[in-house]
Design a protein that fits this description.
Layout: H1 9-16, H2 20-27, H3 35-48, E1 64-71, H4 76-87, H5 89-94, E2 97-104, H6 109-117, E3 124-127, H7 133-144, E4 148-152, E5 163-165, H8 169-182, E6 190-195, H9 202-218, E7 222-227, H10 234-244, E8 256-259, H11 264-273, E9 281-285, H12 289-297, E10 302-305, H13 308-324, E11 339-341
Parallel strand pairs: 1-2, 1-3, 3-4, 4-5, 6-7, 6-8, 8-9, 9-10
Antiparallel strand pairs: 10-11
Amino acid sequence: MPSPSSVTIPRIAKAAGVSTATVDRVLNDRAGVNPATAIRVKEVLAELGGAIPQPGRPKTAPSYRFAFVLPNARTAFFDGVDRVIAQSAGEFRHQHITELTLRLPSHDPNAFAEELAKLSDYSGLALLAPDVPQVKLAINELVQAGVQVITLFSDVAGSMRSAFIGTDNRAAGRTAGLLLGHGMPGKAKARTALFSPPTRFAAEIDRRIGYSQLMEERFAHVEVVRFLEVPDTEEGAYRYALDCIPPADSADAITSVYSVAGGSFGIGRALAERGYAGKGLFAVHDLVEVHRSMLASGAADYVLHQDVYLSVSGAAKTLRALQDGVRGALTTFRNPRVEIITQENLA
């Protein structure tokens, strides 16, 4: 018979055939659980020889096997997250965490979901994934198998994931709108360009929505012109933007540009060639090296940034607390806020 300390909420959930959230509700006497299900959970707990998990950290120091699952697309942000995870290895070892970073095929949602579904031998996953039905189903199956799953930087809402770790992307888009809107001339007619890839990531979609909402609410005189097919390479983004952006001295010139994801350097090149240097405002996301250079040179005006290290570290700590069955595990981490980086506070 296993020792009481080895009886965790995920183990009870797997044996009872229910979710970890259901087990947590039963153990904490919360409403919303079918009485027969509650009886089954308590019977399983008794069969496993365990006691109800108590608040606080366990007395023992078990080992944990977690995976950070990222798209395999070679973007500056995804690669930067990969580096931060690798740099945090020492901190993870101190917490008795063995972590592995996996890069799954993001160009094909079916392939991504198929590879994700194979990860049932991990005790926890921190997942940056496209928000599509196939991925939701894979998450739900993993959770039902006893794997703790949280989403990282981009959510998969409606799935059985336990938590989302990352900044509020809707708020990030609205922040970009506020910054660019205040930089536009008075109440005169103006046009702002929104550039985005053809995305399946909720983070990028939420940024689009937030930006458009803010412009509609606060700057109704500004027309939002959407270009939603930005290629995934800087050269492709440059050629795409060059075709989309009217000359700066034309009647339909734009007064600001917002890029919700990658390709910003290419878009910046196109803006310069169309004569917008010093004539418009440009906001991008994430303080990767290319955006740092663009701020320093004046090619970009604002970078909407999120603390990647804080989110990665918070993901590991949250997974550990969930795995230990710590009460209030989902309330111990506060998601990072949107940071506004300019040329003046770049250092």
